[in-house]
Amino acid sequence: MESTLKKWFGYSAFRPYQKEIIKEVLKGIDCLVVMATGSGKSLCYQIPPLLTGKTAVVISPLLSLMQDQVMSLKQRGIKAEYLGSTQKDSTAQSNAESGQFHILYMTPEKACSLPSKFWTNLLEVGVCLFAVDEAHCISDWGHDFRKEYKQLDKLRGFLLNVPFIGLTATATQKVRMDIIRSLNMNDPYIAIGSFDRENLFYGVKPLGRCLSFVDELIGEISKYVASAGSTIIYCSTVKDAEQIFQSLLDAGIKAGIYHGQMGGTAREKSHRMFIRDELHVMVATVAFGMGIDKPNVRCVIHYGCPKSLEFYYQESGRCGRDGLPSICWLYYTRSDFAKADFYCGEAPTVNQRKAIMESLMSAQRYCMLATCRRKCLLEYFGEKITFTNCGSCDNCTNSKKERDMSREALLLLSCIQSCGGRWGLNMPIDILRGSRSKKIVDNHFDKLSLHGIGREYSSNWWKALGDQLMTSGYLKERHCDKYRTISVSPIGMNFLHTSTSEYQPPLVLPITSEMVDEEEPRDAHGRVDGDLQDLASLECEGLSKAEIKLYHMLLDLRMDLAKSTGTAPYAICGDQTIKKIANTRPSTKARLANVDGVNMHLVTTYGDQILQQINHFSEELNLSMDGEATVQTAVAKKVYPISNSQKKLAPAKFEAWKRWQEDGLTFQEIANFPGRAAPLKEQTVSEYILEAGRQGFEVNWSRLCEEIGLTQGILTEIQGAIAKVGSRERLKPIKEELPDHVSYAHIKSYLTMLDLHVLTEEILGRHQSSKTDATGEPSPVHSFGPGAVSGKKQRRSDEPATGEIPINKCHKVDITEQGNILLKATEGTILEWLRTQDGVALSSIIEHFKGSCEELVVDQLNNLESEFLIFRKKGLYRVM
Ligand SMILES: Nc1ncnc2c1ncn2[C@@H]1O[C@H](COP(=O)(O)OP(=O)(O)OP(=O)(O)O)[C@@H](O)[C@H]1O
Fold first, then answer.
1. Which range, of 128-137, 511-520, 840-849, averages the lowest pLDDT?
2. Of 18, 26, 130, 503, which sits 20 to 30 A from 477 (CA to CA)?
3. pLDDT at 256
């Protein structure tokens, strides 16, 4: 499985759940996959056809999405096609029917309209799976219901014994059950991953007051455009989209527009230009939704609050799919929350209107939040969250401002009480601000002693206070069809009873960004808090100045290659891969092939051009070739503000972390550190480090595993115990399933690493190999001297140019005077021997083939690697 992943996709490791799901599919078991946007669900149906040689049929809701996927797969050398109204190749269907494609996409309408003969013929040549992508469209509880999806179960009748897979990024319990029922799934394997997109920064801003909103927005966007990433601006209406689009053009920013009222051709053109990096900004309505699979979108901006958190999660999820740090800003105005009437317009029943209202309310709560936004989002999707500070949203990174607002609270609560709890928030606020509207006069509210007493604050300021009082339980809200009323809760009544005009019990509440906005006017750039680290600098983190230049030169080269082949640059290879190439500057195809993200097709199709350019640019920039990688795959890279000092960690914990991570002290040394009033338990120290990790502090996981003695064996035991208990909620039952040598520290560390998506396999592998080094074995990586690698393949005339190398059954040997046999290395003998081994280090290969000099062995290995016949993982060579 790993070699297939490397060969076709270029990746060296599976992401969480991928491997397990693929294994189940290969066993013929139905699967329901609920995982975050951008988490790599597609791979779960893309790998099985490459392993089995049978076709995978994939149902997808949008033609544009299918076209993009097919384009990307073809760029990897995978045979993929789609069937649909825009397919110009008249032979596509008959080719599909005879099993010519690894992966065959179609819409649900197409699938249901194909003749039964098509399915029986295809089944005869082999179908390895039937995948239903965006499977939430099956359910009328989902946010994108498509009735054609409901008929897909009919195909069960044709595709006997073919596993069905439903994949979605958003599905509540009800929707999950609907998918299982609708697809007639039989005891499916269910994989539910975390919804957390760790590389995304979430932030919310109210409409700026001193600058016009659009000006502020344009300022913000120009920053992202300058950093070369793509930006999507989602607008609630076509009118808004057109206005923002025009303003961008006026400001000289090249942008595209996409909405439902545009013609198909115009939309397709806009989409294509964006996908191909010919446009860096797209202004769109929700019509530009599910189908966007562009990995390097660095920023998603919402101009107006979306109508539910499901929509927000899906749309913001288009950002940072390549794992690099990316930003999601939501700009709202208070009037967005009054759109319930508009959204409810077409909902015929009270229950449906209630559901719409509740969805809008949840989005409003998200906007008004003064605590962690990530926690709010994840809890909304039913995840149990233990952290309170994610370190990567505006509320967790801005220094929190709080103030005693007991006087203001007394005024608002009293006014709501005086109105008799029959109104929404607007009426009491208008009274406090001294309005003499007809409604106020008719109800004699202008006679109240509170009338006009709160003029010093704007209406939005009072609304923000109302939201805070609601969140803290002082107010309660009731829904009557499309309307909401506010009244004072028992906690609020208690506060009123203990307050007088001279004395109020302290009531400290967070000052929300909206209040700050009202109280402290923004600077000329519309910013209140410290700005976020520049995305461009984050993108290039870990690269030297010259390497950054090389990175940009290689991005340009990729653009030229994409233009010349009529494809999107990301389909050739991702930004992260280019970054790693710029960082290591491979001089040979073997070294290029070993870069994470480089697949076989890239090496064979563009390898020569890329190597030539790396060589040329590196010389120009005075950079040496074949460097060691210093940048890592940014799977969980977060966007932090410039200063990390605001990350929340109690001083004692921070100190323990610093001594361990930065000063290199052991848990024992920290526990007994001189000057400590009382010694700490070592276990407490390790827990401090785990908490630091959870709070976003850097942790050397490999060292941690070594220190607590967490080995791959123990990890497997823990995984088994968790599977047996069926939950990871409580540690005690897990511990009871395990032998005594497995400690709580082992379990906690494993669970923390799991939550933080730390690649334990890699960590424990590295941990083991560092132990091998300690025994005196040279590290396999270091054995590669630059001079030892030859770029040219020295092929013998009797070897075929491509494909399988014939195995030399009779090993070439030299016999020493003592009678020892010295095996000689040829590509055939190396391949044959590696086939019998489970991963071998270079030093062992050299040792095994003592009959050949080291340089020759390395040369043969390089040749095999650049042909994708072998690959290296964690320093060990394996056969593809
Ligand atoms: N094992 C892996 N290692 C590195 N990158 C991966 C891996 N698996 C997938 N990816 C990459 O992650 C990105 C997102 O994957 P994919 O499109 O499958 O996400 P998804 O879960 O289907 O998202 P969505 O629900 O938004 O469609 C792609 O660029 C993909 O190539």
1. 511-520
2. 503
3. 93
CA of 175 to the centre of ligand 1 (A): 22
pLDDT at 375 over 50: yes
Q: What is the pLDDT of residues 420-473, one digit of tens each?
A: 877 888 899 999 998 888 888 888 898 888 998 888 888 888 988 998 898 888
Closest residue to atom 3 of ligand 1, CA basis: 11
Q: What mean pLDDT, rounded, does the chain reach?
A: 80
Say which residue the tokens 């939309």 belong to: 267
Atom of ligand 1 nearest to the CA of 42: 18
Name the CA dihedral angle for 507, 513, 517, 520, rounded to a multiple of 10 degrees: 60
Residue 38 near ligand 1, beta carbon < 6 Å: yes
Model confidence at 868, pLDDT cuts 50, 70, 90, reads confident
As a whole number of angstroms, the distance between CA 655 and CA 675 comes to 13
Measured between alpha carbons, how far is 605 from 571 in angstroms, rounded to an integer?
13
Residue of 18, 22, 39, 601 to mutate, ligand 1, most atoms within 8 A of C-beta: 39
- Are 31 and 186 contacting, i.e. CB atoms less than 8 angstroms apart? no
Q: What is the pTM of this model?
A: 0.64
Q: Which atom of ligand 1 is nearest to the CA of 295?
A: 29
ipTM exceeding cut-off 0.95 for this assembly: yes
Residue 356 C-beta-side C-alpha neighbours within 13 Å = 21
Across the strands, what pairs with 190? 32
Answer whether 15 contacts ligand 1 (Cβ < 6 A): yes
Place of tokens 């399988």: 804
Which H, E and C letters describe 666-704, residue by residue? Answer: CHHHHHCCCCCCCCCCHHHHHHHHHHHHHCCCCCCHHHH
Q: How far is CA 649 from the centre of its chain?
A: 25
Chain centroid to Cα 746, Å, comes to 27
E-only strand ranges, 323-440: 326-332, 402-404
Q: Taking a C-beta distance cutoff of 8 angstroms, is the pair 708, 686 a contact?
A: yes
CA–CA dist 438, 621 (Å, integer): 74
277: DSSP letter: T
Residue nearest to atom 16 of ligand 1 (CA): 40
Angle among Cα 285, 286, 289 to the nearest 5 degrees reads 120
Q: Are 640 and 698 in contact (CB under 8 A)?
A: no
CB 48 within 8 A of CB 31: no
314 Cα nearest atom in ligand 1: 26
Indicate if ligand 1 lies below 6 Å from the C-beta of 55: no
Q: Token pair 């860096």 is at which residue?
A: 280
Contact 166, 185 (CB under 8 A): yes
Q: Whose CA is nearest to atom 30 of ligand 1?
A: 40
540 lines ligand 1 (CB under 6 A): no
Nearest-angstrom CA–CA distance, 588 and 97: 41
Q: Any idea which residue has 């920053």 for tokens?
A: 223
Nearest CA to ligand 1 atom 6: 40
Q: What is the mean pLDDT of residues 54-74?
A: 89
Cα(686)–Cα(708) distance, integer angstroms = 8
Among residues 51, 37, 47, 86, the alpha carbon closest in space to that of 66 is found at: 86
CB 464 within 8 A of CB 368: yes
Q: How far apart are CA 100 and CA 115, in angstroms?
A: 18
Task: Give 289's pLDDT tier (boundaries 50, 70, 90).
Answer: low
CB 463 within 8 A of CB 414: no
* Residue 705 or 545, more confident: 705
Q: Report the separation in Å between the CA atom of 384 and the middle of ligand 1, taken as the mean of its atom positions.
A: 24
Is 317 near ligand 1, meaning CB less than 6 Å away? yes
